[in-house]
């Protein structure tokens, strides 16, 4: 069987299929379970400097081809999550801590206080005032936050980018200038749903972020644009549900991929994607390296 191990953004991964932030990342046990189910790395739910309750409910609604969420970054704070990370490490794969803040200094403070194998900077949540894309849509702030965390920490820094922008490449270039080891594309698309019986927006926060199959073509295009210009690796996320989706995202230029919403089908999705990808490479007599960015070389 072809080797699926890969070195991406400063981490050695036994395979390129990771658990995305936000899904099953709230406890060490669920992160560990994802690793045992085959994930090559796991990303925690986003952690801030103080506990947050998140937005009022409903916080999640299923829509056509995806999920709409406005969780509002609920978390117990990084100070109360170190034990969960230690538990997650028992899964034997890198544990990447997703972190958020309202300023470069707040991000850096968390990076100084939390131990993880890498940090993924959430500069892209589309529905939390003062956080996420409210900073991450400005290239100068992306560069400043990345630089501050890089200076505060010795582990790899990944920057998760927002698609809610006219030009995601500008944001990727800013992360690279700030010293990022990789960019992660994409977070959810800002979206809403309305109950037609009552006329009320369904989510407690009125609007939220759309994930799942509906956003995959946006993610593929973003990864393609970023990987054609950046020198650092691009990690693809957004609507990946099957091994065919994973192949497509890697062909677009992703060095590895993350799976989130598809986990609604259960932990078995890791094994399905990994074995399908492996069989595909064997059938085509290709390596992961051959596959990565193939679409860019063909155009
Ligand atoms: C949340 O926890 O509110 C979602 C995080 C995100 O969209 O980045």
Molecular structure report:
The chain contains eleven helices and 14 strands. With 299 residues, it is of the alpha/beta class. It has one domain: Aldolase class I (TIM Barrel), CATH 3.20.20. The longest helix is centred in the C-terminal third of the chain and has 17 residues. The protein is globular and about 50 Å long. It binds succinic acid. The site of succinic acid has 13 residues, from loops. Succinic acid binds next to loops.
For this structure, the CATH topology is TIM Barrel
Oligomer: single chain
Mean pLDDT: 97
Strand composition percent: 15-25%
Ends: how far apart?
A: 29 Å
What structural category arises from helix and sheet content? Answer: alpha/beta
Poorly predicted tracts of residues: none
The total beta strand count reads: 14
Examine the secondary-structure arrangement and name the CATH architecture: Alpha-Beta Barrel
The first-level CATH class is given as Alpha Beta
Q: What characteristic shape results from the CA principal axes?
A: globular
Gyration radius, in Å: 18 Å
Helix content: 25-40%
How many helices?
11
Major sheet description: 8 strands, parallel
Q: Into how many domains do the coordinates divide?
A: 1
- The CATH superfamily turns out to be Aldolase class I
Largest beta sheet: strand ordering: 3-14-13-10-9-8-7-4
- SSE string, helix = H, strand = E? EEEHEEEHEHEHHEHEEEHEHEHHH
Q: Bound small molecules, which ones?
A: succinic acid
Index terms:
299 residues; alpha/beta; binds succinic acid; four-stranded antiparallel sheet; single chain
């Amino acid at each position: 069987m072809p080797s699926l191990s890969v070195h991406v953004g400063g981490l050695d991964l036994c395979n390129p299929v990771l658990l995305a932030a936000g899904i099953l990342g709230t406890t060490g046990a669920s992160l560990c379970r994802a690793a045992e189910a085959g994930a090559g790395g796991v990303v925690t739910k986003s952690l801030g400097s103080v506990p947050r309750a998140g937005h009022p409910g409903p916080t999640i609604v299923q829509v056509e081809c995806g999920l709409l969420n406005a969780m509002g970054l609920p978390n117990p704070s990084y100070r109360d999550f170190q034990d969960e990370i230690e538990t997650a490490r028992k899964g034997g794969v890198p544990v990447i801590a997703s972190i958020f803040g309202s300023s470069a200094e707040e991000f850096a403070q968390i990076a100084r206080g939390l131990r993880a194998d890498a940090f993924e900077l959430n500069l892209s949540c589309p529905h939390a005032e003062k956080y996420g894309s409210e900073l991450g849509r400005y290239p100068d702030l992306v560069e400043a936050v990345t630089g501050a965390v890089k200076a505060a920490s010795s582990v790899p820094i990944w920057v998760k980018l927002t698609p809610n922008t006219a030009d995601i490449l500008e944001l990727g270039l800013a992360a690279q200038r700030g010293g990022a080891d990789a960019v992660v594309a994409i977070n959810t698309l800002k979206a809403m749903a309305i109950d037609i019986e009552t006329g009320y927006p369904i989510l407690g926060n009125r609007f939220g972020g759309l994930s799942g199959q509906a956003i995959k073509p946006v993610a593929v295009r973003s990864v393609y644009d970023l990987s054609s210009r950046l020198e650092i690796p691009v990690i693809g996320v957004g609507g990946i549900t099957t091994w065919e989706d994973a192949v497509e995202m890697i062909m677009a230029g992703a060095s590895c991929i993350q799976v989130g919403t598809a986990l609604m089908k259960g932990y078995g999705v890791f094994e399905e994607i990994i074995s399908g990808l492996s069989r595909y490479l064997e059938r085509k007599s290709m390596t992961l390296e051959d596959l990565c960015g193939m679409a860019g070389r063909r155009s």
